[in-house]
Each structure stands twice: as C-alpha cells, then as structure tokens.
Amino acid sequence: MAVYAILSRFSPQAFTDPSEFKVIADKVSAEIKSRCPAVHWRESYAMLGRFDVLDIVESDDLKQLERAAMIIRGFGHSATETLVCTPWKEFIASL
Length: 95
Description:
alpha+beta, Alpha-Beta Plaits
C-alpha cells in the first residue's frame, strides 16, 4: 500500500477559539472514514512552523486519497500539500 504525507495549514478563518478545532477535526475524520474507506490513517502530528498538521496515511486508491485531501480543505478550512513517501530501503534498492 502506498504511503502519503498530507501537510495541512489552517486558514486564519478556520476557527476563533482553539477549542473549536477538536469539533472540526472530529467532523473531518468522520467524513473521511465515511467517504474514503480505502484511506487508512497511520499517524497524525501537530506541528510548529509552516504547516499545522502532518497526517501519515496509506492508500492504493489515488482518487480516494485526493478526495480525503479535498475533505480536509473543505471541512477543515485548510490548505493541503500531499507527498508520496517511499520507504528508505525500497528507495535505495530501486537505484
């Protein structure tokens, strides 16, 4: 299964009180589970810097991965950047 990193940056208008973020995160998670069953979450991290969240996901369905990123953008009021991740040993072996 392919591994992807989804980097997200919140819009300044996404929420006014940080406690509102939990409600948004729960809504985004439920929407992705419902509409993107081929996207499997491995881990999520809060980040400081250019991006606010890093989600590590797996999927063999690129269309569902794209849909998940759009759900994060729409429901999560975020800009996203999605990167494919190749395990280091596989990358080295392919050289």
